Amino acid sequence: MSLYVAPINGTHIHYTQSGPKDGPALVFSNSLGTDQRIWDDVVVAFSDRFNVITYDKRGHGLSGIGTVEYNIDLHANDLIGLLDYLGVDNVILCGLSVGGLIAQKVASLVPDRVRAMILCDTAPKLGDADGWNTRIDAIKKDGIEPLGDAIIERWLSPIYRAERPLETAMYRDMLVRTTVDGYVGTCVALRDGDLRDAATKIAVPVLCICGSDDLATPPDVVRAMAGMIPGATFELIDGVGHLPCLETPELLSRLIDRFIKENNLV
Fold it and tell me: What Rg do the C-alpha atoms of the chain give, in angstroms?
């Protein structure tokens, strides 16, 4: 796996690329308050066959923050710009939480470039304005740190937190070290993003996945999304929270691999 940086839409986007560059493209987009490393244990299952691309969305990880107001269109156009930079056309998109919303927006903007989607613990509309405004105000006032424990409880299942305290602490550090501007900007994008109409027009194979213990996007929310998208299928991972790529990467990889094979995507 190699680390790279690309000039995209007035900032720099940090990305990784692994596997054969002439292979089918599989792109992973991560959640709010995380960086591309959350996909590491999933990437290894596909980098023998796929041109696997992960990246830090703006304001996260090693990517730039930029100077413009955030919205889902901006995040989606950052990803489209990265694909343009890499010369990658037809892709399978796997997005988690806000990454899933970004994937849906990319499919809406450039439907001819998306072959299929895996939408993990996400929805076409995430949360409500009051909830996002409360979080935005709190973080602007005191930073992310005071909310760290509460957010981690929504991310990771009780069993994982009890059995893997070191990893839990590490991912909490990933969260609270996210830039305030990047985190708040993406909260604004989530507050204002609504792709419910677009979801009904998706015309590629879609797999929707959710952890049974997800408190951020509960199973009923993700199951409802699957019902909105023509032909979409739904898989529930028992005993897992909002980040199945961290808690059960092998199982998540198997579900993705089965979906790819069933839809003749490789």
Answer: 17
